[in-house]
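hey can u run this one w/ adenosine-5'-diphosphate bound, need the structure tokens asap thx
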Amino acid sequence: MTETPVVDLDGVTFGYTQTPVIEDISITVDAGEYAAVVGPNGSGKSTLMKLALGLLSPDDGSARLFGDPAASFDDGQRLGYVAQHASATKAMPITVREVVKMGRFPHVGFSGLSTTDWEIVDRALERVGMSAFADRRITQLSGGQRQRAFIARALAGEAELLVLDEPTVGVDAESVASFYDLLDLLSAEGITILLIEHDLSAVTDHVDRVICLNRTVYFDGPAETFVQSDALDRAFGAVSVK
Ligand code: ADP
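ok here u go:
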């Protein structure tokens, strides 16, 4: 029996106006894959991710998430989304543990967290190396630490798919390296990871698969092959970078 892909885009075309920014893209991501979507600014990476997650609907073609139409998908706990540098948290006067605790909300209903739920929260903090910061306010963390906290929230929610949108923008080089080490670890544990990345040097040493995009797919294959190919030059040459 073949397993249902986590993400399944089939002949997807989408435009905010008459002009498509995504054109006839077919991509499947299977459970356990570790893939990066790369491409120049304005090449459609975020749009593609929104289509995959059902936040936008294709003009043409179909988008499925865990086998269901992405637009009507409502099992949010199966995916964890880590936004770019999580700037929305600036006004959140809450601790790291409280952020991670939110990952349990879909599982617990009104009864509150059980001892087991708290154990899952603490284990998630441990997995991302943030136990020592559990009681620190999220606003008092560095960019890299904050992203770890958001990954911990996804882990506490038992997410099967982790979607990260340029997670290391504004994060210092050393923290970027250890952040990717963490993703490698989680990938080895079996979670499916889909990453949007502008910084290519960060990903090609880590991910298994690179999807290089500029309105259409210029490359889709192993990271090693991508590095040796001319896909990047072609993709970057095809657009006037914003
Ligand atoms: P990337 O993530 O690769 O930078 P985007 O998916 O954000 O690319 O954008 C792809 C194209 O769609 C760009 O030309 C961008 O200007 C345009 N675009 C993105 N979001 C919107 C929007 N909400 N309304 C209109 N155009 C948009």
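The two ends are 45 Å apart (CA to CA). anyway lmk if its weird
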